[in-house]
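Sequence in, structure out. Go.
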Amino acid sequence: MYKKRNIDQLEFVGFYMPFGGKLRSDNRWVRLANIIPWDELETHYACLFSEDMGAPAKTFRMALGSLIIKEKLDITDEETVEQIRENPYLQYFIGLQEYTDKAPFDASMMVHFRKRLSPKVLSEINDIIVNGSLGERDKNNDKGDGDNCCASDDGNIKGGNGEGNAGIMMVDASVAPADISYPTDLNLLNEAREKCEEIIDTLYEQVKGGIAKPRTYRENARRDYLKAIKRRKLSQKELRKALRKQLQYIRRDIHHIEALLRRGAVLEKVSRQQYRNLLVVQEVYRQQKEMYEENKNCIADRIVSISQPHVRPIVRGKAQALVEFGAKLFLSRINGYHILDKISWDNINESTLLIEQVKRYKERMGCYPEAVLADKIYRTRENVRFCKEHNIRLSGPRLGRPGKDNPYSKQQEQADKAQRNAIEGSFGIGKRRYGLGRIMMKLKETSETSISLIILVMNLEKRLKLLLALLFRRYFLPLKLYIFNEIVAS
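Output:
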């Protein structure tokens, strides 16, 4: 059950401090709370609950505010609760009426917050914040006609090209690595074997005394694994021999599990985690057996982690890591704000989403972009044809052999690369500052929520900086000019 608050907005002056004093209005958390339309966004959260059934849920402001605090400070769930308990500004930010030295909720509630605020809900929230910011920018720029509605501060373009296109759109893709150890086939099979042995022990307790305990040869299996893994250099023949042995151990364990089930053991009495591990192990065994028999190194939907089976290898070809393991995110940058167009756990070619991203730009801005700045991988024939039909300049030289009358000059290429560095820097900021470089969540849903939250926090930071620049321009700059003129006059 969800109960909406009776007040529209928490009054800043009404926040009670039992030890005296008052909050400063120029604090970053106070300013950030003032630019978020909590009441407008609350309707998206209230739809997730029943109106008259269940215990009252935590407020939307507490849920979203706590997640924003965690991603902004890049801390754990437990540390987030402690920071809120100790800091009155954070308590005001999540919507409390007065300061309290008790934790507003348990740290485990953060998991429920991430599950409730799905990437779809966060995408709607991000659109409201971004569209509101773009609308305010249009008012400040005093753009009257529709063709000039898309002014961009990324490319110093203030209007359209005379045919309904305006603004610059930047697109790129990157990987948010998951928190898993670097996977190898031998390590994966060893972990799968250990999971099978735990399930066998649990199932045998149900029929203990009636039959002899199955022999798993776990000590021999462990010794064979360590013998191979401790070698500094393992030849291909030795590796295949070690893989074959682990596959044989897993096959024997799976047969023992099936025999125990026939003898009266039931899967309903094993834990939910063990049942999930059994399903994953069976698929891992099938994939590894197929790769071993066909002597190949790749397979469709390859599992690289027992605990996170949704993670897939993403081939990137970067200097630091040729293959990354995590979610692939597709990002658009418009006027300095970021739009998360898609999150995929499969290695999708980013060029296939360009047309969809451009159409979303038109829905948001009311016009097509004048230019799309992207990598060379986006310059497919289909994308080039689409951009040409809608009078959009797609960065990069034309396809095929370069000719003498190439309209794309070296100067234009260098200018496009310099402007496109902005979206490359956005990924760098997200990975170094906000934890996008390693997603610590274990579930697929919560991982996607964490990625969406990071993009949302980056947009809020952008809006907060613009607000500070506006205040400086409106109040401090005239004062500085007045003082300068007084000094000159004297």
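Check: The mean pLDDT is 84. The first strand starts at residue 168 and ends at 177.
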